[in-house]
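Interim report, section 4.2 (structural modelling).
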Amino acid sequence: MSLLAFENVTLKFGGLTAVNDLSFSVEEGEVFAIVGPNGAGKSTVFNLISRFYDPFAGSIRFDGHDLLQVKPSGVATYGVARTFQNIELFEHATVLQNLLVGRHRHRKTNLLSEVLFLPSARRQELENREKVEEIIDFLDLQAYRDKMISGLPYGVRKVVEVARALATDPKLLLLDEPASGLSVEETTDMRWWIDDIRRQMGITVLMVEHDMGLVSGVSDRVLAMADGAMLALGTPAQVQSHPAVVEAYLGKAS
Amino acid sequence: MRIVFKTNYMQDIRPWKDGYQLTLYLILLVVVAAAPWLLDDFYLGELTNVLIWAIAGLGLMVLTGHTGQVSLGHAAFLAFGCYANVILLEAGVPFLIAFPLAGILTGIAGVTVAIPALRLHGIYLAIFTMALSILMDDVIVLAEPITGGVGGKFIGGVDIFGLTIDRWGTPAPFFWLVLAVAFLVTLGYINLLRAPLGRSFIAVRDSEVSAQAMGVDIARTKMISFALSCAVTGWAGALMGMYAGAFNNETFSVLISIQLLMMIVIGGLGSIHGAFLGAIVIGFLPQFLSISKEYVGALFGGSTVAIPGLEFGIFGMILIGFILFEPMGMYGRWLKIRTWFELFPFYRKDMFKRQKSYLKTERLR
Amino acid sequence: MDNAQLLISGLANGCVYGLIALGFVLIYKATEAVNFAQGDFMMLGAFVTIGLTNTEYMGLPFWLALPISLGIMGALGYLVDRLIIRRLFGESQTAVVILTIALGFVIRFVAGLIWGHEPQTLQNPLAGKEVRFGGLVLGMEDVAVIIVTILLTWGLYLFFSRTKLGLAMQGASQNQLAAYYMGVPVKRVQGFIWGLAGVVAGIAGILFAAKGSVDPTTGLLGIKAFAAAVIGGFGSLPGALAGGLIVGVIEPFASRYIAAGYSQIAPYALLLAVLIFRPNGLFSQVRIKKV
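Predicted structure of the assembly:
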């Protein structure tokens, strides 16, 4: 069974059809990329998974659960983590605190034990800290651990956002344009990290990306979208040479 | 600059950075606790007032400073706590039960208010709470059989294990009572901030969408924040009532709500220190003004009549100054000064520079 | 007939609320900031005009004082933006709210210093005149209030929906940065709108002072007017007027048909109900946050 499955999902905003009868599935352990021109509905797909929007029709299933029955905060508890296109970090908190928020879904303590900071709360904090430190090591964020987000450069924020998503211990990681705005070196780093996330951590990755170099470098399968509908689905090479894609996307872009 | 080498995760988890810092705060606590021997009754009373305002400020800080929900109506919860405390005491409930219960009841009232307010953002929530605060005045008048209406209520001394605590009769024990409440609330607050719940408050404040994506239930988190905030505010209200001795519907007017919000902004939003620093300004400003008025009067031979609105006017100017030049409040300024000394001479002006957020509308048409 | 009389006086009151609400909405529409000192601007407008015309002060002729005081108020609005609000460019909405509340305190304090704390009335050519209409006796001031308010709302509405400048202002509020890139002089637009809000507050103040008496705490009326603006749906000019009228009319009727104390409660109770059930106001625009 696939990890994530979209079946005939349609979403309309007023008269505008943002996603049109879209079906695809993401298998466990793969890196799956969604490409397409601006306004093709790529980010909308992510926002549908995050339950920010209710689809007009169709079903979204994750790991055997019907996601449409879950409230937005419940998606993370099933093991879906994500980053945002325009970086949505907690600006006035440190990197460490940001990552620790990622551990929120593993919270076992309650209000009383936290206000009194009982030994159970202390233990939980130590556990969270150990997990978070692993991720800080993994993504080389040691130098920024106690820095406020509001003072960090863009490239670092991008990495912190990935780190925060990893801190939730997800099964599926959604990356919304992980390389946008990054320098060539930073993009290369990101590419190796995505590879490592899949290989070392065994996390399935679903990403939206414009950088075809990155897409063909790391993804197993690519979905090309235009106007909310599927154009082509296959290996990066297949999709890149697909006539409809060339016409709608690459033809215009390059 | 003192650099603490961390060898253990507990060093980040415990509330103090190192022994030096812990010692400083302990000394501060001891000095404040010794205030009854150091100050005369008048200034002890003023200090008590400052601490009560600080507790109220901590209450509002949870909601506004850490969860990002602006409330212009916390005077309503001060009133609720105050009346709850007195009514329970009058019913013969011992103080040690009545007082905690007053806060808990206020917390429940806060949640009741929070449920319809959950969908409201920013200024809409501010005006919602402001309307509550205005209505509270009328509700107290209408509920005369319980609240005493315009005539108000009186409260004398209370009894704790045979020890009488009275603001006028025994100012020292009353001061210690207030200090104990302030201390415990602060301790709980510190604990909260180093636990998941406190972090989820900050997450909701800084980005609701990504908090949600991390599994934080926004509605629930806001409700808990309202509950804690209102409970603490309720305790502050109960103490305020005991401090004033008599109160009616006008004691907790909407102006008090506004003053409380301004206080934590001046002190510094999003920090525990801010509540205390702001309370010091609120508490001592009237004294400072009357002293300087006498001084100016003596110098120029002018009269020393009261100028209505002076206190609020000056307070408003201080606030405008802070928002323009030090949006992080007194605590933010203090951090900068400390960093300047620690790094001397390597401090750079833009060290605390924050990124500006350009306004994008949430309206769609 | 009594009810009709009550309705007319309620409408006249409501127009004043509506005018203050108009100031709120103007600034919000163009800059998405909320000026909580709008009520105090109105109070100041009233006092400035009183200071110019009333015989115990400067004693200028009413029709000469009128443009001068509106000019002063416009300049004041512009200066508030220029000297204070503009520095907050890029800060949160809440910072502006708190700042303008503080500004209100300062204005009240200063007005009290200059004009004292006794209630005063504006000496004006309409004072004491009456209009008979059917069986109703209407004060000329009330009629003037209603006419001026309707004309002003209509004019501003046309300005925002028809003129290039008005549309540019709306654009500036939707996305400051984008508007800036598109060549809209965002800062100048903002200064202009604050000046305009000052003038509207001046008009409201003059009408209010002609109808009744003002003292420095009159500025607190702004809270009620803000309630009116929210009831009408923040961001819509006709909505602001409608909200003002609703609040103005509901007050006398609540105190007549429920109990005296309820004229205070009714507007805020209505506000709470609107916020709970129709958070976008009775005449609303849709609100969805986009990620």
